[in-house]
Amino acid sequence: ALPISSTSRWALWAALPAGVALRAWLPHRLVMVHFGTLHVDQAATLDRLPRYGSATTLLDHAVFQVLPPHHSTVQGLHVVLGGLTLVPLGVVAGRLLVDPVARTWAAVGTAWAAALLPLSLLDHGSESMLVPAFLWWTAGVALLPTALTQRRVADQIAVVVLLTLCGLSRPDCLLLALPTALLVAWAVGPLP
């Protein structure tokens, strides 16, 4: 857990429902109409697993077992996933600083800035594969220092699964997920 006061923890977690509500209220727009249509079709039928974005395709396929296979379903899912990204993103930002006051401001400020940032609001209302990829990366990186210092197998497995999902969601994430996660872990401080 991030060492911040309980009041600050409430302020950090308040970004989640506020961010989801704002994202749900705003209009949703497709980023890439042609690829988005192909992606939804592939995720609905799972006739073949694409080279590009297999983890997100499998996630969408699982969601399509419960909800209709449509762009609006993916966009609704991304509204929720984008909101869920806010807290681990704040935790990652807070862990980069040593001073308790700066840590608190960084964690809460980053979560709220991301909750209100127009670019993230637009992205989280789209079919962009970056939305689940960024959630998996931020959650994995937020958990990584704890997994390395406390050496709980469940935490370590969760980090590996989250960063693997991130890496399998986009080709660039495959190259960047682990190195950037380790860079953040190194910046946090001494690890065993």
Describe it.
With 192 residues, this protein is mainly α. The chain is built from 9 helices and no strands. The two termini are 18 Å apart. The relative contact order is 0.15.
What is the strand and helix layout of this fold?
Layout (H helix, E strand, L loop, with lengths): L5 H20 L7 H13 L8 H11 L6 H25 L4 H17 L1 H6 L6 H21 L2 H15 L3 H18 L4
Helix pairs in contact: 1-4, 1-5, 2-3, 4-5, 4-7, 7-8, 7-9, 8-9
Query: Terminal Cα separation, in Å?
Result: 18 Å
In terms of quaternary structure, the protein is single chain
Radius of gyration: 17 Å
The proportion of residues in beta strands is under 5%
Percentage of helical residues? over 70%
Largest sheet: none
Name the helix and strand elements from N-terminus to C-terminus, one letter apiece: HHHHHHHHH
Compute the average pLDDT: 86
- Total beta-strand segments: 0
Low-confidence stretches: none
